Amino acid sequence: MKRRTWCPILLLLLVGCASTPVQPVAERPDGKEKETSTPSETKRKEGAARGGATTGPAPVTTAKLPAKEAAAKEAAAKEAAAKEDAAKAPETPLTARESFALIDYAGPSKAREEELLGMISRYELQAAQKPDDTTNHFNAGVLYARLGNYERAIAAYRRVLEKDPDAREALVNLAGIYVIQGKFDRAAEIYDRLLSRTPNDADLQLNRGIVYRKEKAFEKAIETFRNLIRTDPKNVAAHDNLALVYFEQGAYGLADAILENTIQYVSDQDARIYNNLGRVAVERKDLPKALESFRKAITLDPEFAEAHNNLALLLLEEGKVDEAIRHFEEAVIAFPGFAEAHLNLGVALREKGNYEGARMEYEKALAITPTLAVAYRNLGILYQHYLDDTEKAEEYYKKYEELTGTKVARSDARAR
Length: 416
Known about the structure:
By secondary structure, the chain is mainly α.
């Protein structure tokens, strides 16, 4: 099998376009739910831990200029530049699919997990038979990453690099995992190393810009993406990430303008654009448009896990639990390691009275992301109010408190 079969574009696109899905759901001690932040976003997680549910990236604050006039002039210049970017954006999807993993539970994603694990076993067997052929290690790494088992994916890529320290594909995918894990310094080191050899590589420049964005170095990110657009006005991912910078700064109107302007240039009906329009609509409290956009994304790409998750969250808020469960299940079938979708599915199952199913889904989320604090809190509430095991509940509450530094209010009243 040729290496091209498992092209690094998989993780390249994940790094280039992926962002946090609409927030997972945390259960209240009284049995109700509230939206909370995705734990991979530190600032947003801390806000939720203090009891303030967040619905999107926190706006970035800037230092005050000495004169109001100067501030107004700078703001006007930025707005003009942003509008110019929006006007010439050919394609601007903000997000792509995300991939993650699961543990033992006969849920909807079990068959997909077993299929991928079977493929990994075959690659590892072939690697043992042909130790000098790095292709099998590389392919196993891609599949481990798809399952969310990043440590094994890293180990597989390192085996490739032991044979060929300059293997670009393995280095790019390794850096991609570091970005997902929040190890931005390690990712930047790899990208800088590769760019020192091929400074005009647009993909590497893009990924370097993404690291700037993830580190909240927005000015450097904007400069990187604009340089790419000047070189290639139809660079989809550059427009994509430029819009995402505005989105993450709370400039939802500008992000929406870029996305809306993009649609006229899309020939193949990119589902990501509609998913991102939905995300922006959620932030702008335009729920009808959000629902319409997520449904459109799913129509165009029925296996778009993030769109299923985002739609299901809105349906859950509307009390349409059965339909929400169906879409959460579609999300984890498409990507078995989607931690937040497992968490959200657990909340929906708890709503239906399936407490054992809820427990299993929360545990799957933690198997994927052990630092997913809200899952510990949800398990504590589940054991305290539904499974009548206060000792177990206390264990999970303490773990949540260790991760967040926030005390959980123990309630004697049984959750409704």
